[in-house]
User: Fold this.
Amino acid sequence: MLQPLPTLLNQLEQMRSRNVPFVLVTLIGVQGNSTRKLGARMWVALDGFTLGSVSFGSCGDGEIKKRIASVLERGTAHRFSFLVGEDEDTELGLACTGDLEVFLEPNPQVEAVWRDALEHLNLRQNVVIRTTLEDAPEHNFNTSVQPFKPFRARVETLEDGTNAFLEHWSPPPHLVIVGANPISKPLSRIALELGCVVTLFDSTPEKLNPEWFPGVQNLLSGDLEQVLNLEQSDVWTAVVVVSHNYA
Assistant:
């Protein structure tokens, strides 16, 4: 699962608020073992402050930090590969071995695309964000209400010969819980922590107290059939019945 766009946007705001030049690092290639997957991101400021990791804080992060000053000085994006560990290191417990490829963007101009893409995700649409792997990268996206041919992230050569990094986001999972009771409270909390949109239905409105279910986006009563035909209900929706009255 890619890092959620709201999390990335919050991290971007945090980096900007420090008023220190920074670089966005994206993991775009892995050959061998890696604790992080394609699309993992790390933010590194000129003063050494970091958010996130492309190798869980060890392995490759230190190698990347060595290049931050020169990338910021040039003011252009930088793509490079480096070796992390050796094959025999796996036997010694090192989780990262092989080649990692990363893309470094100084003071990235990606906020507008991320925010637009997030709006489409909230409309339950798929989003593919494309970043050209050039000195001055361009960011754009396209959408579909239908699932794309499954992929998570990949490098692709465009028609003009340009290399681009493509990332596929699906809308957040939607959990519909039927029945407001002691089971639905921890269930909704766990689902929210996992990034789900949560709808809670109960035929008794008095049970749908927002204070009892903090963070739940939809507290609904009334006609259950209408609830199950919500616009948010799609191929990313799961229904859990915890009501005592299954009928």
About this structure: Confidence is low (pLDDT under 50) at residues 87-93. The helical segments are 5-17, 61-65, 68-74, 111-122, 184-193, 224-227. Residues 85 and 94 are 8 Å apart (CA to CA). The first helix runs from residue 5 to 17.
